[in-house]
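Reading a protein record of the kind used here takes only a little practice. The integers have meaning only within a learned vocabulary of local backbone shapes. With that in mind, consider the following protein and its fold in token form:
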Amino acid sequence: MKKGYHPVIDAIEKCERGVTIPELFKLAKVLDVDPGLLMMQTKIPDDRILFLQTFIKYLAVKDQPMHLTAIRNLVEDAMKKRIDG
């Protein structure tokens, strides 16, 4: 077997094998990502995923630095405008 190769993961990536919801949550936990990310149809560049994961972890902290609060507000406003059309 090649280093880093796993036949089950390979089959999932090729859509040759599906995953159950519990398996999806286990995969997300192992990968340290939100389960919703694994269900997205849109391809997001790896560097943006890493940025978003780090940003989400910072937002989870109770006392956020002011610049993070400002960024969160900008993102929320952009999301609202996109939903409202």
